[in-house]
Write a structure and sequence with these properties.
Elements (H helix, E strand, L loop, with lengths): L2 E6 L10 H10 L2 E6 L4 H13 L6 E6 L11 H11 L4 E10 L7 H18 L3 E6 L2 H11 L6 E3 L6 H9 L3 E4 L10 H6 L8 E3 L25 H12 L3 H16 L4
Parallel strand pairs: 1-2, 2-3, 3-4, 4-5, 5-6, 6-7, 7-8
Bound molecules: zinc ion (ZN).
Amino acid sequence: MKIVDIGSNLGNKAFRADLGAVLERALEAGVAAIVATGISVPGSRHAWEIAEARRARAPKIFSTAGIHPHHASTFGADAVVALRELCARPEVVAVGECGLDFDRNFSPRADQLRCFEAQLELAAELEKPVFLHERAAHVEFTKILERHRPKLARAVVHCFTGEAEALARYLDLDLHIGITGWICDERRGTHLVDLVRRIPADRLMIETDAPYILPRDMRPKPESHRNEPMYLPHVLKTVARARGESEGALARSSTETAKAFFAVDV
Ligand SMILES: [Zn+2]
């Protein structure tokens, strides 16, 4: 089995002490490639450094370059210059993560909107895929994407946690969907068990969003609350069961989808 974790925060301080061991465990679990998420200019540089340092070793590491809505208040003209420069590096496979998060509003909404649109423009200019984040902002997010979608190559709504209406709208907009261990959460993710059936195989990818979103139903429960890419097979199993298909079939289709989406070889 060969699977791709399309979103993992490998640059997070939770992995600072033992990233090498984390990646070895991921490889043993069948994770052939990981896309390290960039969440700020320094964070994106760090994600790229991890990818670059691991070049030619397994699992393959790629990265994204972008500014998460939580960090949108740090955004300025120099940020676009820095992101454009990072995007020229071969390990950087997408712009993002970028989007809107009106759940926590760590950055003011006006800053989030400006920062998001600038990154969509950058992705269009560079003809790169976009790695999108949306939380509690479905209406505004959709409005912006409707305007930009025709100019974008490919775009994935990562860690989709929304309702049926949002999913239908995103599929209409020809977006890809990333599913995390949120689907394993019996308190707030059970609606996804039904919804993942509606995602065409060539638009569905899987991710851990590690170190966040440790699947709640893992038994035995990992001692640490830290999520890791090695738990991606648990997400795969849950999504496959929900879709009524084999783990092997979903592993193959989600890997092919990720390879085509990020234009990488795995
Ligand atoms: Zn996110």
